[in-house]
Amino acid sequence: MKRIAFALLLGWTAVFAAATNGSARSDAFKENIYDPGPLKPIDSKLKVGVGEKAPDFSLPAVSGGKVSLSQFLGRKNVVISFVPAAWTPVCSDQWPGYNIVKDLFDQYDAVLIGITVDNIPSLFAWIRQMGKLWFPVLSDFWPHGGVADTYGVLRSDGMSERALFVIDKKGIIRYIDVHDINQRPRLEILMGELEKLPR
Amino acid sequence: MKRLIVCIAGIWMGFCFTSGALAGDGPRLGDPLPSIILPAPEDPAHRRYLGLSDGDSFRIPQIKAEVVIIEIFSMYCPHCQTEAPLVNRLYEKIEATPLLKERIKLIGIGVGNTPFEVGVFKKKYQISFPLFPDADFVMHKAFGEVRTPFFVGVRLNGDGTDRVIYAKVGGLEGVDRFLDLILKQSGIDQER
Using the beta-carbon criterion (under 8 Å), do A27 and B148 form an inter-chain contact? Predict the structure, then answer.
């Protein structure tokens, strides 16, 4: 009897755990989202820290050309948003939220840069489903995850972490959030960090 | 071996009992609305709109209306963003129609959204009807983890019971068409 009760409990727990990965999918992506299931929350070790100079990079943008971190030096605060992979559940419902708060980024004199390790064609198709994004989306595909690895957010499976870096106008890292890959960071926390930057 | 079989049976039974809620289909037509508790709005105008008396929380059948339309949305959902102006038009049309104004109420539930994030959505799209955050996906699970936007229409029978008259993922597909469907399904268009 105890075994049956235990088995039932296990069954409920297994099903409930599968149901509580904490994301809501937009109908904008229809049935085209691949769900890898719950993943190890963090699977990398940071190679940069708050107060350090942010490593420069130059990556191809989906919209064409290249975008470098150094081009914003002395002009804009920068938020880098690494997301793990195109066409996956939480990632597909993160940048569309940032897309309606340009005014908040402007308020803090900040630009947003989105980066994934996907290639340009995949990113092109994916972000078209989000509407017209106001911020550049960069491909860290080749050398694979090179920038993610430099920052220490490249996972052992080749995806990047879900990570946010706030970099001030002097190029100094002011905030790092290597987030649980299964969950979306809360917007108010990022905005609170931007508010702390010197005006 | 026996233990393994029993465990597998347990997992299967658990799946069978809950698969309806996990399928993402949402509430079924004719069924009662999932029982959820919402925080009472802080805005007095929204409390008046919903006809709520004092209290920190309420259930949807307590709303003073004959039909409640629930939009399940997320500020992070691009489809919800493009749909927002249409939903505003739906609200405005109901409010501008004396026959419907006191009988149909509209609310939104921001699944996975914090109060700040719901506030961003409300401000961005100048939404006048009450929106409620569901940061921890509690209500989202109660509604069957549907994709967003998802619209639910519920008929309040006046005796404390209710039944779902509309449940569908995706946009409104036209304000007039949607409202006509709600009126037809609820039967309230023929009562006055």
Answer: yes
All residues of chain A having their beta carbon less than 8 Å from the beta carbon of residue B76 are: 24, 26, 93-94, 96-97, 184
Q: Is the model's pTM score more than 0.95?
A: no
**Residue pointed to by tokens 């719950």:** A38
Residues of B in Cβ contact (< 8 Å) with A188: 114, 116-117
Q: Which domains does chain A have, with CATH numbers?
A: 24-195 (3.40.30.10)
Give B107-169 as a DSSP string.
EEEEET--HHHHHHHHHHHT--S-EEEETTSHHHHHTTS--BSEEEEEEE-SSS-EEEEEEEE
Domain count, chain B: 1
Specify whether A91 is catalytic.
yes
Mean pLDDT of B173-177: 93
A131/B112 CB distance under 8 A: no
- DSSP H or E segment with residue A82: strand A77-82
Q: Do B18 and A19 touch (CB under 8 A)?
A: yes
Residues from chain A that touch B147, judged by Cβ atoms under 8 A, are 24-27
Question: With contact defined as beta carbons under 8 Å apart, do B39 and B132 qualify?
Answer: yes
Domain of residue B40 covers 26-190
Does the distance separating the beta carbons of A24 and B77 come in below 8 Å?
A: yes
Active-site hit among A80, A91, A110, A137: A91
Mean pLDDT score of chain A: 88
Domain assignment present for residue B141? The answer is yes
Least confident of A100-109, A137-146, B19-28, B45-54: B19-28
User: CB of B3 within 8 Å of any CB in chain A?
Assistant: yes
Mean pLDDT within A76-99: 92
Looking at residue A22, its pLDDT comes to: 60
Q: What CATH number corresponds to the domain at position B79? A: 3.40.30.10
Interface of B with A in 22-81 (CB under 8 A): 22, 74-81
State whether A6 and B75 contact (CB < 8 Å): no
**In-domain check, residue B5:** no
Q: What is the pLDDT of residues B119-160, one digit of tens each?
A: 999 999 999 999 999 999 999 999 999 999 999 999 999 888
* CA atoms within 13 A of residue A37's CA, in its CB half-sphere: 4
B4 touches chain A (CB under 8 A): no
